[in-house]
Fold this sequence. Notes:
Number of strands of chain A: 0
Order of helices and strands of chain A: HHHHHH
Number of strands of chain B: 14
Order of helices and strands of chain B: EEEEEHHHHEEEEHEHHEEHEEHH
Distance between the termini of chain A: 42 Å
Oligomer: heterodimer
Low-confidence stretches of chain B: 279-293
Amino acid sequence: MNDGRRETLASATVAVLLEMRQAYLAGGGNALKHWAQIQDRLRAACRTSETVEQWLTTMQRGLQLPAASSSLSSAAVALAKSVGTDAAAWLDMVESEHGYIIALARLESEERKKRRDAARGD
Amino acid sequence: MEQRRFEFVLRAEQPIAHAEETLGNSSVIMRRKVRQPGGGWSRVPYVTGDTMRHGLREAAALAYLDAAGLLGKQPLTESALRLLFSGGMMMGGAAGGTIRLDEYREVCDLFPPLALLGGCAQNRVIQGRLFVDDATLVCTEQADTLPEWVKEYSGTLESCRAHVEEVQRVRMDPSLDPGRRKLLTAEEAEQVERRLADSEKAIDQQDIDAARSSMMPRRHERIAQGSLFWWSVTATCYSELDADTFVVMCATFLADARVGGKKGTGHGLLKPVAARDVKLLAPKDRAEIIEPTELGPRVGELFRAHVGERREKIAEFLSAVRA
């Protein structure tokens, strides 16, 4: 997998994780420990899923999320399209680089918060 | 001298929980890195050769003690137990350092599996003559490394990920059961009631840590029931006794092969379902799973006769061995 493809898949994965994070927190998930929870479930889902669809379902189940919201649905379908037939390679990548994927997700969520706060200030 | 090799397809009659590490309260199964054709790497579950070899060693030890008439009848010294069940260890100190050649021959004569498995006796490391492979999961990621006959037997291969499931168990706290609390002494019952009352108050005050239940949920990965493994074991035999000992070891192990953890709760049982160079009998004949006519002398006959004839010397040896 070349760097460009890797980056595309990482971004699509992060988009899904952020939507799941939002659903998890909205459902009463522990705000102090949610990143650790998401990371644990991410690893477990990578090890036990064969396809993007299974991975999404396992993540939803592991985080005890309700039915997908419209934004999570969009991100999920976009991820499945990006991955295409490279599910095995994508799963290997996410499992072996899960620390980095979570770090990207966390940074992105902080950036979004800064933008929202800035917009409110305006 | 000859090299005898047995290859088996083993089926997981129960799920296999062969753990590599624990992350938090989740246990993760053993995986090894495998290069994929065309590049890239996968981490594929497997059962280690160490586990399989230890199974052979344990089976050989029990067969040996049984043949010597010592099973359950005479307690072993700690050294003898170590020698039989884990190969012994270097004792160091004033143990003598090296073993003389005639002493080595006598040790192998009195304990034939040692010549094949190797170990450490009389403070000398004895080289083994057994090559025990990992039990390789039959899956697409390993397709390139599996023999053709195994692939033909196994049918459609799936990704290794399809073979792994994660399950949760909970250790129930018996003190949460009012019926069980009636078994406590008055003092203990009061302590428990007080703790439960504090936990209820903590829930009202939304103090999550103080309100935490004493039940212990934990998760573990396991290889699903029905998964197939390819396994091979090779021995270099210098005598008919070596060959018979090798077959006894394999037959005894495979009659009830259990690997990994959680054996007490429905995990670990492997059953041979196909083999090369050895014919397996039906489960009702499992006591002698090797077809006798295929191998010349009846399986175990030489081994049992050899060990039986030496039972008194063996008893002395096991009481005095330093391992």
